[in-house]
Please model this.
Amino acid sequence: MTIAPSLLAADFSRLAKEVGRVNRSGADWLHLDIMDGHFVPNISFGPAVVQTLRPLTKLFFDVHLMCSKPEIVLEPFARAGADQMNIHIELGDHVTRLIWKIRSLGKKVGLAINPPTAISLIQPFLEQIDALLIMTVIPGFGGQSFIYETLPKIQQAAAWRRERHLRYHIGVDGGVDFKTAPECARAGADTFISGTTLFGQRNLGAAVRKMRKATEKSQSVGLLPDSEPLKPEVV
Ligand code: DX5
Ligand code: ZN
Model:
């Protein structure tokens, strides 16, 4: 399981200390939400902040680009120290070119999908991605409630991965807490992006361990080696 605290929920007045907390917590990735004020109605931070944080940790930097024109920022974020860059499938015709560009920069490729968007749009790209980021809230703000209607998408992504013998991560992002994370694990998710819940705990390390344990327990129930894959409707 990959546990990825989302920096959006950190105390921005002491970012370096917050990254230190994540570093010591046993988390696997640091999720960095980039909002452009256009693709989503909020603005977060840019490559200069990521560059400042890069020397503080060896954590895998998972950059989530909620941007209408990510092509403008791919190179700056690559230089700033991103390990993986997630672009949104809602960008339509631009997706192929963006995936190619991220690869050419030597970075891992993630593809994110918003709750109202059909999972079938992801299908042509499955062979080309390292991670699928299933948004479980409408992106733009932390602290929202998990949208349960997204669960069949996780099941579908897991079924495709099994059938095609692929290895992409299946991540969930938004409203992921100690109740919803195991439910996502049961559906087939292996990567858990969590902001408000993890940063809200005084002991981040204990929170990361708790989420890891809860999700591992659910996965072993849901994905027994010989069990029939779930056959959800394509949503
Ligand atoms: C939502 C962001 C998420 C956000 C999750 O637009 O993409 O990464 O930080 O925050 P929580 O866990 O508070 O829902
Ligand atoms: Zn995110």
Residues 23 and 141 are 24 Å apart (CA to CA). Residues 6, 31, 33, 64, 173, 193 surround zinc ion (ligand 2) (CB under 6 Å).
